[in-house]
Amino acid sequence: MCTETKAQPNSETLVNESDQTLVESDMGLKSHGAGPGRQGTGAKLRHLSRSTQFVICATIILGLTMTFVGNLVSQSIEDATVQTAAETGARYMQNFLEPFVQGLTTAKELPDETIQTIDHLLSSTSLSTHVVSVKIWLPDGTIVYSTDKSTVQKTFPTEEISQALTGKIYTEFDNDLGSYAVDDVEDAFERSLNIPLYEIFAPLREAGTGKIIAVGEFYETAEALQREINNVRKKVWAIVGTATTGMILLLFFIVRRGDKIIKQHETALKWRMDEQTRLHSNNAALQRKVTKANREFSRINELTLRRIGADLHDGPAQLLALILLRLEELESSEGVSDVEALEMIRRAGQDALNEVREISLGLALPEVNDLTLHDALVLLAERHEERTETRVDLQLDTLPDDVPVALKIGIYRFAQEALNNAYVHAGGKGQKLSASHSEGLLEVQVEDAGVGISTEKPSVPARGRTRLGLVGMRYRVESLGGVFIIESAPQAGTKARAQFKI
User: Where does the secretion signal sit in this chain (predicted)?
Assistant: First the structure.
């Protein structure tokens, strides 16, 4: 029937206008965006600047929030305005109609004189300028008086007057003139006027007892009230719109300033990352140069050892051989009394010759340039077994054939020194030489079954030489870019392991 209703107990009048616009817009907003272009829109938004993204999001959020606030404020103002006007009109009409309905305590209709008097007052007084229709209802829903005489003595549902029958002033604001329901027959006359109205239902009481004997309904023009409400709405929306725009602009400038700072930091960070990458590249190049220099040093050191071995073999060894030869000649020409002395000299010379040859044999590296790493390790094990008359357990996996010469020599020297330590300090027990290559990691290991390396401070020269040999092996391996690992425990033997990335 009407679009807005409110009820107020006794002297208070409430007006409620159910505004569906906000709800419908919210539902439309939720249903919108679920289409196939949603992902494309999201991708476009992500490519915008932070400040632009913020403005879009802030506009949507603040727009919805301020729309709700504006509707709430304007609705509250409208309610208060209508409430005041309705309450004033209700009090006036109660005082106007109650004297004419006192006879309804015993009768079910108004006398003709009373009806004519009411008609005359409504048409001749100032009420006619703003009150367009008046009805008086009995509690059973029968209209006993109406400006539209076609509805008199007709009974209608009591839903509308039920609030007034409980003692409340009931108000309906009708600004939707286009809606007309079939069952709104009692309002046909008022709707035919085609002007905004608000209707008020007020209880009419019996004098003295206060008993409700009828309900007065009157329709008052709402044109002036509607203009006032519209003006208030415009002012509210102007204030809300200005405040929203100001907040969005203020927040935009704040976010834009922060966005510029973030971009400056991003630029500085990118520059630092590029600089760090460049420094890392330079460090890697320097590391390669250091590794190359270490390998070159290892090659030069090997050449030096070869020269020393050759010098020992061609120099002192030859001299000792000559001494032995002359001693043999002296023995054949001298007397018997010098035989023992000569024999002692000969034995000393022979021992010196053997020692020098042993040293030169250890210093002189066999030619491994044309051998693979596998063949070089096999040759090393054979020579160690031949020289020490011990056994070496050889376990070699498939090894790469393109190992650099400097690395191959370094591995050979590492394994040679480790086998020598196993022979000297473990008596050659449990000697084992193994090598493997997997996922770019080359590993060579030498182990024995001796008493292990003591963690105590060495007290004999042999221990000192052992520690010096370990230091030399570690330096040789690490100078080639490898990792040296020594594992030993008392009575559990020793393992020396070298790892290289190739």
Answer: none
